[in-house]
Write a structure and sequence with these properties.
heterodimer, A: 497 residues, mainly alpha, two-stranded antiparallel sheet, 2 strands, B: 163 residues, 5 helices, 66% helix, flat
């Protein structure tokens, strides 16, 4: 029941342009405050998947992807829509997401206990190494430049510093304001950054009608399209899942790889860029598998690898649950019911969305002023309900202004969130590790695990350059294939998923 | 002047630099409790402060040298929104502040109506009466949803909480 509600609401909000999955989950967080833990987690599962699907709907019909994972879908998906095959595009996205989600969730179900068992053996130094890995990857792989990614993360770390310090109990950086003693609520940060930032950013643009491509007929595919889709689905899943599970951050890479792969494998290369269904099927499956993969480190290690995962982590913490290896032992029912609800949510997504596509499309017709005013209202409401205090509203506005500036200058938003959440954790692990070793810093590189991780970190610092150049070359090839330059390329919004 | 046009990012980078320096300067005021074997509450702040300062410096250097990337403005239809961008942004923030202040005075429904109406108008909504009605509807529906269905408390206004 809650799964249904979650999926429904998730898709609803996810469809709205400008709202990515991270924001959707964050906005809907207040709705779950009064529910008990399992009910709200089930709802979250539904919201999570629903939001992803809503995002792909937006990118296919509007050519404005709501999250980085849908950017690639928009390339061929929108072309298909314009050619009148929008229904098929949506269908392949939905079914592909379903297939990917089911497979990925199954792998998750099997992988989680194994990883958790391994994770228990890790010491604080190892966790710290993992966090450094997460920091480096998130900071360097997202966004247009590494410097800005790290800048964003730096702000997040700073935000994480505010509040009562764990060991000695004194307050740091609270500027004398007692309301800051508990630190800055991460939900306020996320909603302020994404929602308010988006609203303010939109306010700086000139506005105007967004072009929505109408769909003809019910969302279904011909047999031929089906046949062309199913292998990309599987390949996309295989690509997407590992990327989600690794703290590499971002869903652009796996969807990009999937698209490139499909293009290379296809016998109809010329169609890519003009509406090849494989170009939608593969990336969409990759996107969904990626989403499920993200849950692996989240549930087993307590490390979020995407902004959306960070929000879910916060949701857990609201109930006093700390995801990590102990979670499987202490609350196995919860974890399994979450996984079960992922399956259910996935199924519901398929059942629900194919027939309801028409309704989602109508949502897109809401005029922008009302839409964004509504987002603003809802977001501020979320801020208020965190602590029943208006102070948080002001805080959110400040964060929102920062978010707007970041969007304007192309700073990635996800590193900030990850920095704010993982920063305090990293500090705890670091101090714990050093305390155990009574101040000996070599403990950080003692265990084979941490050594491996640090080696990976060093390697990773070099990878972005290569990836970036490779990405540019392929992107140039794609735009060359998609025809005349007057064609709008997908409005690449600086969103995080 | 044009040199500055593309380098507005310097403002934010400057703020970042200031933040980093502030952290570095403020950290020494954190008391170290005696008996701490290893690193104390100052260590991490120092690192973060140093990190911030370095990154900000790097960013400043980069922006000074080559300017910022501008956000892409593809497919923009002619202006449908009144006034220059800065006014709109300031306006929305102002409306939100008013909303926050009104919350405890007039209760949620009225405060939210004001918020919605103000924001929508600033974003381009053109029919005040219709917008006002929609605003009221949205505010009321939200209130109903949260207070009655979800049992999340919201401030009540002069119309009382026993509605």
């Amino acid at each position: 029941m809650y799964a249904f509600l979650g999926v429904f609401v998730g898709t609803l909000v996810g469809v709205l342009p400008g709202i990515g999955p991270a924001l959707t989950v964050a906005l809907l967080l207040p709705m779950t405050y009064t529910l008990d833990a399992s009910a709200s987690l089930i709802m979250f599962a539904g919201i999570y998947y629903g939001a992803m699907y809503g995002g792909s709907t937006t990118s296919i019909l509007l050519n404005t992807p709501g999250e980085s994972g849908s950017i690639i879908t928009a390339i061929d998906g929108n072309k298909m829509a314009r050619a009148g095959r929008g229904a098929a595009a949506l269908a392949t996205a939905a079914i592909g997401s379903f297939v990917a989600g089911t497979i990925a969730t199954t792998v998750l179900a099997f992988a989680a206990p194994t990883v958790a068992a391994l994770a228990v053996k890790l010491g604080p130094a190892d966790y710290f190494a993992l966090m450094i890995l997460a920091f480096i990857t998130v900071g360097s792989l997202l966004g247009s430049s590494m410097v800005r990614g790290f800048a964003s993360m730096g702000v997040g770390l700073l935000i994480g510093l505010v509040g009562v310090e764990q060991v000695s109990g004194q307050t740091r950086f609270t500027l004398g304001l007692p309301q800051l003693n508990d630190g800055i609520e991460i939900v306020v940060v996320i909603v302020g950054l994404f929602a308010i930032g988006e609203v303010l950013y939109t306010a700086t643009r000139k506005g105007g009608r967004v072009r929505i491509t109408p769909i003809r007929g019910r969302a279904w595919m011909t047999r031929d399209e089906f046949r062309r889709s199913w292998k990309p689905w599987l390949r996309g899943t295989a690509i997407g899942f590992p990327f989600g599970a690794v703290p590499a951050g971002g869903s652009e890479i796996p969807t990009f790889i999937s698209y490139t792969l499909e293009r290379r494998l296809s016998k109809r290369k010329e169609e890519f860029g003009k509406g090849a269904i494989e170009g939608v099927a593969g990336p969409e499956a990759a996107n969904n598998a990626n989403a499920a993969g993200v849950l692996v480190p989240l549930l087993t290690l307590g490390i979020p690898t995407s902004a959306t995962a960070a929000v879910i982590l916060v949701a857990f913490q609201q109930y006093g649950l700390q995801p990590g290896p102990q979670l499987l032992d202490t609350e196995p029912d919860l974890v399994w019911s979450l996984i079960a609800s992922l399956f259910i949510g996935n199924l519901l997504l398929l059942v629900l969305n194919l027939p309801l596509v028409g309704m989602w499309v109508r949502l897109l017709h809401i005029p922008q002023p009302y839409l964004y005013a509504g987002i603003l209202t809802f977001a501020l409401l979320g801020a208020y309900t965190v602590n029943n205090a208006t102070f948080d509203i002001f805080l959110m506005l400040i964060v929102g202004a920062l978010g707007m500036a970041m969007r304007w200058f192309g700073w990635p938003l996800a590193p900030l969130v990850i920095g704010a959440i993982l920063g305090p954790n990293a500090e705890v692990y670091l101090r714990r590790a050093l305390q155990i070793s009574t101040g000996d810093p070599t403990v950080l590189v003692e265990s084979p695990f941490s050594i491996t991780v640090y080696v990976i970190v060093i390697l990773l610092l070099g990878v972005p350059f290569l990836l970036h150049r490779w990405e540019k070359r392929t992107a140039a090839a794609i735009t060359a294939a998609s025809g005349s330059p007057e064609d709008e390329s997908p409005a690449v919004a600086q969103k995080s998923e | 002047m044009r040199w500055f046009r593309n380098r507005g990012e310097l403002g934010v980078a400057g703020l970042l630099l200031a933040a980093g320096i502030y952290v570095l300067l403020d950290t020494p005021t954190i008391r170290i409790t005696p008996g701490q074997l290893a690193i104390g509450p100052r260590f991490f702040p120092y690192m973060v402060g140093a990190f911030l300062t370095l990154v900000a410096a790097g960013l400043i250097v980069g922006v000074v040298r080559s300017g910022s990337a501008r956000p892409d403005t593809d497919g923009e239809a002619p202006a449908e929104r009144p006034g220059p961008a800065a006014v709109r942004v300031a306006g929305i923030v102002a409306v939100a502040v008013v909303h926050a202040l009104l919350l405890n005075l007039t209760g949620y429904v009225i405060a939210a109506t004001v918020l919605f109406w103000g924001a929508a108008t600033l974003l381009g909504a053109r029919r005040p009466v219709r917008d006002g009605i929609i605003a009221l509807a949205v505010a009321s529906a939200t209130y109903a949803l949260f207070v009655w269905v979800l049992q999340v408390p919201l401030p009540n206004g002069p119309f009382g909480g026993d509605v």
